[in-house]
Amino acid sequence: MIDFWLAAGLLLLVALSFLLIPVLRVRRAQREEDRTALNVALYQERVAELQTQQSEGVLNAAQLDTGRAEAARELLADTEGVEKPRESRLGKPLPLLAAVLVPVLGLGLYLHYGAIDKVELTHEFSQPPVSLADMTQRLERAAAAQPDSAEGLYFLGRAYMAQDRSADAAKVFERAVALAGRQPELLGQWAQAQYFANNKQWSPQLQALTDEALKLDPKEVTSLGLLGIAAFEGQRYQEAIDYWNRLLAQLPEQDSSRVALQGGIDRAAEKLKEGGAAVAPTAKTAVMKVRVDLAADVKARALPTDSVFIFARAASGPPAPLAAKRVTVADLPVTVELGDADAMMPQLKLSNFPEVQLVARISRAGQPTAGEWIGRSQTLASSTTATQQLTIDSPDQ
């Protein structure tokens, strides 16, 4: 902030110079005018003295003319270089008044229309917070300064949840959804905050939010975790296990939350056994990783905007893709995951077929069934976990 005010002060000095320099010039011109008037008065006095001496007979006519000429030369020498003063239509008080009003008015306008709050926030966020409460206060000020920032509201909502302020978080996430649209992650966070704000009471509204989130993204972790919690609290232990197993499949192996999540699954299984029920086997899932790149000759001819369809299809079975992703040539090389969550039809899942083939096709027209170039893999087991390399290198015929 000190740097900002120093820069503002320098700009103010420049502005004031345009107002005060003319005033100083007028004062200098006034002094020159006063000196000229004095010289003229002395000249007139000298001429009168010469005329008196001539009338008394001390000087003749020729001497009088010589004296007048000498006095005139002296007057001319004294006034030489003096500029004629320019008349100011503004007068002296107005520039001085403007010099006072300009900084005051400028400061007032800046405080009203300017972005001093955002400048202060930028400086504040450059310093690490001393506590969670401090970070929350900063996020609140940021949300007030930028009420249309869905990202700022999202982080504020997360901070509220960390402080067990679920009711405040629910309101903030609702605003974020209104600004950014019904994105699955925001819907999941909103549902979770509302659930805890309602004292863990499930409702049709929460069910609708989580259903919508999972329809948009079947891997949305907050919704999966929340549905598992709600099922466990409602003593629907098998549902809790199913949701948490789906969530567990999305978490990296090194994620610290896996331990707590597995503990929840184990507790739900114990509850089932205590009630005399058996734990249903975990549904088999399949996920394959594939890295797609272009051959050199294809790279020279393909356009960045061309569509690239990456899919897996059964080696023996229906020709329809079992899982598919769409990117563009500009995204390549790219690594994607193909799994049951990417199934085109519920009955055609990757895990239902033991052997598959990976295919990547470039289609300038955006058609997944026909294009210009294609790359195919050998037949692979759908349980393959190693990343597969797929190069688009052949004409699509």
Describe the structure.
The protein is an alpha+beta fold. It has 3 domains: 2-113; 129-234, Alpha Horseshoe (Serine Threonine Protein Phosphatase 5, Tetratricopeptide repeat); 287-395. The chain has 13 helices and 9 strands. The chain has helices spanning 2-55, 61-79, 93-113, 116-125, 132-145, 150-162, 166-180, 184-197, 204-216, 221-233, 237-250, 257-274, 296-301, and strands at residues 287-294, 307-314, 321-328, 334-339, 355-363, 373-376, 380-381, 388-392, 394-395. The strands form 2 sheets. Strands 2, 3, 5, 6, 7 and 9 form a 6-stranded antiparallel sheet that branches. The chain has a 3-stranded mixed sheet with strand order 4-1-8. Strand 2 and strand 3 form a beta hairpin. Helix 5 (132-145) runs antiparallel to helix 6 (150-162) and helix 7 (166-180) runs antiparallel to helix 8 (184-197). The longest helix has 54 residues, at 2-55. 23% of the residues are buried. Mean pLDDT is 79; it is low at 87-91.
- Low-confidence parts: 87-91
Beta-strand residue fraction: 5-15%
Rounded mean pLDDT score: 79
The tally of domains stands at 3
The rounded Rg comes to 43 Å
Structural class: alpha+beta
Backbone shape: elongated
Please trace the helix and strand order, writing H or E for each element. Answer: HHHHHHHHHHHHEHEEEEEEEE
| Residue share in helix | 55-70%
Largest sheet: 6 strands, antiparallel
Number of helices: 13
